[in-house]
Structure formats: C-alpha cells, structure tokens
C-alpha cells in the first residue's frame, strides 16, 4: 500500500474514531467520533465502530474511499479512449443516450470494467488495515477478516499455529490466482 493510499485510509478512519471536543457529549460515551458527533446533533445515538451493523458499514465506507480513486482513473481513461467517430455516427443515426451507452461505450470499456472488478475483488481478500484500525476485529470478533485471522494465528499471543496460518495464506494465494486466471482468460477472449 502506498503512502497516499495509507493517508486516505488513516484520515477517514481517524475521523470515524476521533473524540469530539464538544462539552455537551458525555465523556464516558464511546461514541464520540466525528461522525457520531454529527449523528448526535440530529438526535441519533450511533456508535460507528462498536456496534453492528455500524462497524461493518464504517469499514465498507473506508474501504470504498480507499479503492474508488484508482478505479475512477481507469474509468476516466477508458471513457476518453472511446472513439469519438463512433459516438458521432450513432448520434447522426438517431441513437439516444441509452443506446449509445449500451452499444458503444460499454463494449469499448468492457475490459477495463473486468480489470477493475477482478482487481477490486482480489484486494478485498487482502483487507487488513481498515478493520484493524477501526474496530480491532470487534465487536465480539464480528469484523475480524481473513488477513487478521491469519496474522493472529501466526504471531498472536499464546501457542503459535504458524503452520495453519501458512496453509491459510497459501490457500488465499491460490484463490487470488484463480481470480487472476479468470481475468486473464476473459481479457484474452474480449481482445480476440
């Protein structure tokens, strides 16, 4: 993970976790994050990182924030590469916006959609920082993801089950290879 991506995840995570400075919020409450403070202003008592389903919603929001930028760059580049001649010809032939989208734009950016879908799916298997930073795997281990489980088994307190962790990591690698193979085959078919 690069430094700019880490900054995005950390800053949004801290906004979810940061204690509010207002005096009217009780100090013994664990729901003093920046967003929880805003919810309290509207009369909603929401603890974003300590209760379900809010803990998962917070993780999903941070993860979307983390990954959306790279995908958007790919989509903008793909949309700019759509041949203008095809768009103009379709418009002259009387095709509407919906028809141009499904008949011209979508077929031209299909490989980029496939690429971003597969890469996003692969990256979701490797999520570690967001749940660790936001919830620590809680409440009651409900947000403990696969990478946290592998790390805890290998290096956690107590008896080390490094062999089992290594086997889980190898299986995860094989699953990621399957997704990469699917992308490779589908990309080759679309280019043929």
From TrEMBL:
Single GO cellular component term: plasma membrane
PROSITE patterns assigned to the protein according to its UniProt record, in alphabetical order: ABC_TM1
Domain of life, source organism: Bacteria
Keyword Transport on entry: yes
Residue ranges constituting the ABC transmembrane type-1 domain according to the UniProt record: 1-183
Principal location listed in the UniProt entry: membrane
UniProt xrefs under SUPFAM superfamilies: MetI-like
One biological process term in Gene Ontology: transmembrane transport
Subcellular location: Cell membrane
Membrane topology according to the record: Multi-pass membrane protein
Pfam families, sorted: BPD_transp_1
Keywords: Cell membrane, Membrane, Transmembrane, Transmembrane helix, Transport
Protein family (similarity comment): Belongs to the binding-protein-dependent transport system permease family.
Protein name per UniProt: ABC transmembrane type-1 domain-containing protein
Organism: Eubacterium plexicaudatum ASF492
């Amino acid at each position: 993970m690069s430094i700019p991506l880490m900054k995005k995840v950390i800053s949004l995570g801290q906004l979810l976790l940061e204690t509010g400075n207002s005096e009217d919020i009780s100090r013994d409450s664990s729901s003093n994050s920046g967003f929880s403070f805003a919810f309290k202003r509207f009369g909603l008592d929401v603890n974003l990182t300590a209760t379900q389903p809010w803990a998962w919603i917070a993780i999903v929001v941070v993860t979307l924030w983390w990954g959306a930028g790279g995908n958007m760059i790919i989509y903008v580049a793909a949309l700019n590469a759509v041949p203008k001649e095809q768009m103009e010809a379709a418009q002259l032939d009387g095709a509407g916006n919906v028809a141009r989208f499904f008949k011209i734009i979508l077929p031209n950016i299909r490989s980029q959609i496939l690429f971003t879908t597969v890469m996003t799916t692969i990256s979701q298997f490797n999520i570690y920082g967001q749940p660790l930073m936001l919830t620590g795997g809680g409440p009651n281990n409900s947000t403990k993801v696969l990478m946290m489980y592998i790390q805890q088994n290998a290096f956690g307190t107590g008896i080390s089950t490094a062999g089992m962790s290594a086997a889980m990591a190898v299986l995860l690698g094989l699953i990621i290879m399957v997704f990469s193979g699917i992308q490779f085959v589908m990309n080759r078919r679309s280019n043929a």
